[in-house]
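Reviewer 2 asked us to include a model.

Predict the structure of this chain.
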Amino acid sequence: MAEGGRGAASVASGMKELEAQVKTCQLCRLAKTRTNAVPGEGNIGAEVMFIGEGPGYHEDKQGRPFVGAAGQFLNELLQIAGLSRESVYIANVVKCRPPNNRDPEPDEKAACAPYLERQIALINPRVIVTLGRHSMAGFFPGERISQIHGTASVVDGRLCVAMYHPAAGLHQASLADIIRADFRKLPIYLEQAQLMASPPKEVVREQVAQAESARESVIHREETAVVLEAAAEPVIELKDQAQVAVVAEAPAVYSLAPEPEQPAVEQAAPEAVPVMEKAKAPTRARKPRATKEEYKQLSFFDL
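Predicted model (C-alpha coordinates):
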Protein backbone atom coordinates (compact mmCIF):
# COMPACT_ATOMS: atom_id res chain seq x y z
CA MET A 1 0.00 0.00 0.00
CA ALA A 2 1.13 3.54 -0.61
CA GLU A 3 0.41 6.72 1.23
CA GLY A 4 -2.68 8.43 -0.12
CA GLY A 5 -2.57 6.26 -3.23
CA ARG A 6 0.91 7.43 -4.20
CA GLY A 7 3.02 5.22 -6.41
CA ALA A 8 5.72 2.88 -5.18
CA ALA A 9 8.48 5.07 -6.67
CA SER A 10 7.22 8.10 -4.76
CA VAL A 11 7.02 6.14 -1.52
CA ALA A 12 10.52 4.76 -2.02
CA SER A 13 11.86 8.26 -2.65
CA GLY A 14 10.11 9.59 0.45
CA MET A 15 11.48 6.78 2.60
CA LYS A 16 15.00 7.28 1.27
CA GLU A 17 14.82 10.97 2.14
CA LEU A 18 13.47 10.20 5.62
CA GLU A 19 16.26 7.69 6.29
CA ALA A 20 18.86 10.28 5.32
CA GLN A 21 17.30 12.78 7.72
CA VAL A 22 17.28 10.25 10.56
CA LYS A 23 20.93 9.36 10.02
CA THR A 24 21.99 12.99 10.35
CA CYS A 25 19.43 14.03 12.97
CA GLN A 26 20.68 16.23 15.83
CA LEU A 27 17.32 17.02 17.46
CA CYS A 28 17.97 15.48 20.88
CA ARG A 29 20.72 14.36 23.24
CA LEU A 30 20.82 10.83 21.84
CA ALA A 31 22.63 12.15 18.77
CA LYS A 32 25.62 12.87 21.04
CA THR A 33 26.11 9.28 22.16
CA ARG A 34 25.00 7.13 19.24
CA THR A 35 27.28 5.24 16.88
CA ASN A 36 24.66 4.92 14.16
CA ALA A 37 21.08 6.07 13.95
CA VAL A 38 18.65 3.26 13.08
CA PRO A 39 15.84 4.48 10.80
CA GLY A 40 14.22 1.08 10.23
CA GLU A 41 14.12 -1.45 7.43
CA GLY A 42 11.88 -3.78 5.51
CA ASN A 43 9.22 -3.85 2.85
CA ILE A 44 7.88 -0.32 2.26
CA GLY A 45 4.70 -1.89 0.89
CA ALA A 46 4.23 -4.11 3.95
CA GLU A 47 0.79 -4.84 5.34
CA VAL A 48 2.27 -5.39 8.81
CA MET A 49 4.55 -2.93 10.58
CA PHE A 50 6.38 -3.72 13.83
CA ILE A 51 7.38 -0.91 16.18
CA GLY A 52 9.88 -1.56 18.96
CA GLU A 53 11.32 0.70 21.64
CA GLY A 54 14.77 1.73 20.43
CA PRO A 55 18.11 0.39 19.21
CA GLY A 56 20.30 -1.70 21.48
CA TYR A 57 24.05 -2.35 21.46
CA HIS A 58 24.18 -4.39 18.25
CA GLU A 59 21.63 -2.23 16.48
CA ASP A 60 23.65 0.88 17.30
CA LYS A 61 26.79 -0.75 15.86
CA GLN A 62 25.14 -1.97 12.65
CA GLY A 63 22.53 0.73 12.06
CA ARG A 64 19.79 -1.92 11.68
CA PRO A 65 16.83 -2.79 13.92
CA PHE A 66 16.51 -6.05 15.84
CA VAL A 67 19.83 -7.73 14.98
CA GLY A 68 20.77 -8.86 18.50
CA ALA A 69 19.38 -11.70 20.59
CA ALA A 70 15.89 -10.17 20.63
CA GLY A 71 16.08 -9.91 16.86
CA GLN A 72 16.82 -13.61 16.54
CA PHE A 73 13.75 -14.39 18.64
CA LEU A 74 11.70 -11.96 16.53
CA ASN A 75 12.72 -13.89 13.41
CA GLU A 76 11.36 -17.05 15.04
CA LEU A 77 8.14 -15.27 15.96
CA LEU A 78 7.67 -14.00 12.43
CA GLN A 79 7.95 -17.57 11.14
CA ILE A 80 5.31 -18.68 13.64
CA ALA A 81 3.00 -15.99 12.23
CA GLY A 82 3.73 -17.01 8.65
CA LEU A 83 5.73 -13.85 8.01
CA SER A 84 9.35 -12.97 7.25
CA ARG A 85 11.56 -9.93 7.70
CA GLU A 86 11.36 -9.38 3.95
CA SER A 87 7.56 -9.11 4.08
CA VAL A 88 7.23 -6.66 6.99
CA TYR A 89 8.63 -3.30 8.03
CA ILE A 90 10.43 -2.89 11.36
CA ALA A 91 11.05 0.43 13.11
CA ASN A 92 11.47 1.85 16.62
CA VAL A 93 9.97 4.65 18.67
CA VAL A 94 13.38 6.32 19.00
CA LYS A 95 15.96 6.00 16.26
CA CYS A 96 19.11 6.27 18.38
CA ARG A 97 20.27 4.06 21.24
CA PRO A 98 19.71 5.49 24.73
CA PRO A 99 22.96 5.26 26.75
CA ASN A 100 23.32 1.97 28.63
CA ASN A 101 20.00 0.84 27.12
CA ARG A 102 18.04 3.01 29.55
CA ASP A 103 14.40 3.83 28.83
CA PRO A 104 13.93 6.61 26.28
CA GLU A 105 12.91 9.91 27.86
CA PRO A 106 9.58 11.56 26.92
CA ASP A 107 11.29 14.43 25.10
CA GLU A 108 13.42 11.98 23.11
CA LYS A 109 10.32 10.07 22.04
CA ALA A 110 8.57 13.30 21.09
CA ALA A 111 11.56 14.50 19.06
CA CYS A 112 11.47 11.24 17.07
CA ALA A 113 7.67 11.09 16.77
CA PRO A 114 7.43 12.78 13.34
CA TYR A 115 9.89 10.29 11.88
CA LEU A 116 7.73 7.37 13.02
CA GLU A 117 4.50 9.05 11.93
CA ARG A 118 5.99 9.72 8.53
CA GLN A 119 7.05 6.07 8.21
CA ILE A 120 3.53 4.95 9.08
CA ALA A 121 2.10 7.39 6.54
CA LEU A 122 4.45 6.22 3.79
CA ILE A 123 4.00 2.49 4.41
CA ASN A 124 0.29 2.77 5.28
CA PRO A 125 0.17 -0.71 6.88
CA ARG A 126 -3.05 -2.56 7.61
CA VAL A 127 -1.73 -3.84 10.95
CA ILE A 128 0.65 -2.19 13.41
CA VAL A 129 2.24 -4.46 16.03
CA THR A 130 3.69 -2.71 19.06
CA LEU A 131 6.60 -4.47 20.77
CA GLY A 132 6.95 -3.55 24.42
CA ARG A 133 5.39 -0.96 26.68
CA HIS A 134 7.05 2.14 25.23
CA SER A 135 5.74 1.36 21.78
CA MET A 136 2.37 0.30 23.17
CA ALA A 137 1.92 3.57 25.06
CA GLY A 138 1.69 5.56 21.82
CA PHE A 139 -1.28 3.52 20.63
CA PHE A 140 -2.86 2.30 23.87
CA PRO A 141 -2.36 5.16 26.36
CA GLY A 142 -3.05 4.21 29.97
CA GLU A 143 -3.08 0.46 29.29
CA ARG A 144 -0.85 -2.20 30.84
CA ILE A 145 0.85 -4.65 28.52
CA SER A 146 0.35 -7.49 30.97
CA GLN A 147 -3.41 -7.04 30.51
CA ILE A 148 -3.76 -6.37 26.77
CA HIS A 149 -0.91 -8.33 25.18
CA GLY A 150 -2.04 -10.33 22.18
CA THR A 151 -5.20 -8.25 21.73
CA ALA A 152 -6.09 -5.82 18.96
CA SER A 153 -7.95 -2.53 18.77
CA VAL A 154 -8.78 -0.11 16.01
CA VAL A 155 -6.66 3.01 16.53
CA ASP A 156 -6.78 5.88 14.05
CA GLY A 157 -8.37 3.64 11.47
CA ARG A 158 -5.80 0.85 11.70
CA LEU A 159 -5.75 -2.46 13.53
CA CYS A 160 -3.11 -2.23 16.28
CA VAL A 161 -1.91 -5.28 18.19
CA ALA A 162 -0.09 -5.02 21.53
CA MET A 163 2.71 -7.54 22.04
CA TYR A 164 5.44 -8.11 24.60
CA HIS A 165 8.89 -7.11 23.42
CA PRO A 166 10.77 -10.23 22.21
CA ALA A 167 13.50 -9.50 24.76
CA ALA A 168 10.97 -10.06 27.55
CA GLY A 169 10.78 -13.70 26.49
CA LEU A 170 14.55 -14.00 26.69
CA HIS A 171 14.70 -12.49 30.15
CA GLN A 172 11.70 -14.38 31.54
CA ALA A 173 11.38 -17.86 30.09
CA SER A 174 7.76 -18.20 31.20
CA LEU A 175 6.82 -15.38 28.81
CA ALA A 176 8.39 -16.99 25.75
CA ASP A 177 5.50 -19.36 25.08
CA ILE A 178 2.98 -16.61 25.82
CA ILE A 179 4.64 -14.44 23.18
CA ARG A 180 4.65 -17.32 20.70
CA ALA A 181 0.94 -17.89 21.31
CA ASP A 182 0.23 -14.19 20.76
CA PHE A 183 2.08 -14.22 17.44
CA ARG A 184 -0.01 -17.15 16.25
CA LYS A 185 -2.99 -14.78 16.25
CA LEU A 186 -1.44 -12.37 13.76
CA PRO A 187 -2.71 -14.12 10.59
CA ILE A 188 -6.24 -13.85 11.95
CA TYR A 189 -5.80 -10.17 12.73
CA LEU A 190 -4.43 -9.56 9.25
CA GLU A 191 -7.48 -11.21 7.72
CA GLN A 192 -9.71 -8.97 9.81
CA ALA A 193 -7.71 -5.88 8.86
CA GLN A 194 -8.10 -6.64 5.16
CA LEU A 195 -11.82 -6.08 5.57
CA MET A 196 -11.22 -2.58 6.91
CA ALA A 197 -10.79 0.55 4.81
CA SER A 198 -7.44 2.30 5.03
CA PRO A 199 -7.37 5.64 6.87
CA PRO A 200 -8.15 8.52 4.49
CA LYS A 201 -5.37 10.82 3.38
CA GLU A 202 -6.69 13.65 5.55
CA VAL A 203 -6.42 11.53 8.70
CA VAL A 204 -2.84 10.59 7.87
CA ARG A 205 -1.95 14.25 7.34
CA GLU A 206 -3.46 15.18 10.72
CA GLN A 207 -1.52 12.44 12.48
CA VAL A 208 1.78 13.70 11.07
CA ALA A 209 0.87 17.29 11.95
CA GLN A 210 0.12 16.33 15.54
CA ALA A 211 3.45 14.52 15.82
CA GLU A 212 5.24 17.62 14.59
CA SER A 213 3.32 19.74 17.08
CA ALA A 214 4.41 17.46 19.92
CA ARG A 215 8.02 17.83 18.83
CA GLU A 216 7.76 21.61 19.05
CA SER A 217 7.62 21.38 22.83
CA VAL A 218 10.95 19.59 23.19
CA ILE A 219 13.46 20.27 20.43
CA HIS A 220 16.18 22.86 20.79
CA ARG A 221 15.69 23.24 24.51
CA GLU A 222 18.89 23.53 26.48
CA GLU A 223 18.24 20.36 28.45
CA THR A 224 17.48 18.42 25.26
CA ALA A 225 20.64 19.38 23.45
CA VAL A 226 23.10 18.15 26.10
CA VAL A 227 24.18 14.67 27.04
CA LEU A 228 22.82 13.65 30.42
CA GLU A 229 25.03 11.90 32.90
CA ALA A 230 24.88 8.14 32.56
CA ALA A 231 23.18 6.15 35.27
CA ALA A 232 25.42 5.32 38.21
CA GLU A 233 24.63 1.62 38.02
CA PRO A 234 27.32 -0.11 35.95
CA VAL A 235 26.16 -2.04 32.92
CA ILE A 236 28.25 -4.76 31.32
CA GLU A 237 27.80 -5.01 27.58
CA LEU A 238 28.50 -8.43 26.13
CA LYS A 239 29.29 -8.89 22.47
CA ASP A 240 27.73 -12.32 22.34
CA GLN A 241 24.33 -11.72 20.77
CA ALA A 242 22.87 -14.69 22.60
CA GLN A 243 23.66 -13.06 25.92
CA VAL A 244 22.42 -9.51 25.53
CA ALA A 245 18.85 -8.29 25.33
CA VAL A 246 16.97 -5.16 26.19
CA VAL A 247 13.87 -5.84 28.23
CA ALA A 248 11.14 -3.41 27.34
CA GLU A 249 9.20 -4.17 30.50
CA ALA A 250 11.94 -3.08 32.90
CA PRO A 251 14.23 -0.08 33.07
CA ALA A 252 17.27 -2.18 33.91
CA VAL A 253 19.55 -3.81 31.36
CA TYR A 254 19.91 -7.55 31.54
CA SER A 255 22.82 -9.76 30.54
CA LEU A 256 21.23 -13.06 29.68
CA ALA A 257 22.41 -16.61 29.53
CA PRO A 258 21.34 -18.58 26.45
CA GLU A 259 17.75 -19.75 26.73
CA PRO A 260 17.50 -23.51 27.29
CA GLU A 261 15.77 -25.41 24.57
CA GLN A 262 12.18 -26.23 25.39
CA PRO A 263 9.80 -28.55 23.56
CA ALA A 264 7.62 -26.68 21.12
CA VAL A 265 4.12 -26.10 22.36
CA GLU A 266 1.57 -26.69 19.64
CA GLN A 267 -1.54 -24.58 19.96
CA ALA A 268 -4.44 -24.62 17.57
CA ALA A 269 -5.27 -21.26 16.10
CA PRO A 270 -8.45 -19.83 17.61
CA GLU A 271 -11.51 -19.81 15.38
CA ALA A 272 -12.05 -16.12 15.89
CA VAL A 273 -10.24 -13.36 17.71
CA PRO A 274 -12.34 -10.46 18.98
CA VAL A 275 -11.18 -7.01 18.12
CA MET A 276 -11.84 -4.26 20.62
CA GLU A 277 -13.30 -1.33 18.71
CA LYS A 278 -12.55 1.87 20.55
CA ALA A 279 -15.42 4.26 20.10
CA LYS A 280 -14.03 7.14 18.11
CA ALA A 281 -10.57 6.29 19.33
CA PRO A 282 -8.82 9.63 19.74
CA THR A 283 -5.56 10.21 18.03
CA ARG A 284 -2.61 9.40 20.25
CA ALA A 285 -1.93 11.43 23.34
CA ARG A 286 0.38 14.26 22.48
CA LYS A 287 2.51 16.69 24.38
CA PRO A 288 1.14 20.26 24.74
CA ARG A 289 2.05 22.72 22.03
CA ALA A 290 5.05 24.90 22.66
CA THR A 291 5.47 28.59 21.97
CA LYS A 292 6.81 29.61 18.60
CA GLU A 293 10.02 30.73 20.27
CA GLU A 294 10.74 27.15 21.32
CA TYR A 295 10.27 25.77 17.83
CA LYS A 296 13.15 26.88 15.66
CA GLN A 297 13.49 23.83 13.45
CA LEU A 298 11.46 24.01 10.25
CA SER A 299 9.46 20.87 9.49
CA PHE A 300 10.70 18.79 6.60
CA PHE A 301 7.61 16.57 6.50
CA ASP A 302 5.49 17.45 3.50
CA LEU A 303 2.84 15.00 2.43
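The chain has a mean pLDDT of 77. DSSP finds ten helices and nine strands in the chain. We have added this to the supplementary material.
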